[in-house]
Design brief:
91 residues, alpha+beta, 2 domains, 3-stranded antiparallel sheet, disordered C terminus
């Protein structure tokens, strides 16, 4: 979706992701706050894009990783996230 550099409105992103506009808005806000997305404002319209090419590269690497492991379930993602969080506390 956004890997090609396009900026899309929240409604279109919500439709593509299969979530409600409210859920999409909440997620978009968190991704912006985390520095992963940027917003382009044109009048009343807001368009969301990846913040930079580094973000796109990380997403592409994660996609390759999931193809190799064959598992990108929520449980696997949570386990990986928890593991990273545990290790970061040790550093």
């Amino acid at each position: 979706m956004l890997l090609d550099g396009r900026a899309l409105p929240a409604g279109e992103l919500a439709n593509l992701a299969g979530v409600s506009p409210t859920a999409a808005s909440a997620h978009l806000t968190k991704l912006i706050d985390g520095g992963l997305l940027a917003v382009e404002v044109e009048g009343r319209h807001r368009y969301y894009r990846l913040a930079n090419t580094g973000v796109a590269q990380v997403i592409e690497e994660l996609a390759l990783l999931t193809k190799r492991t064959g598992d990108f379930s929520h449980a696997a993602a949570f386990t990986c996230r928890a593991s990273v969080a545990s290790r970061s506390q040790l550093l």
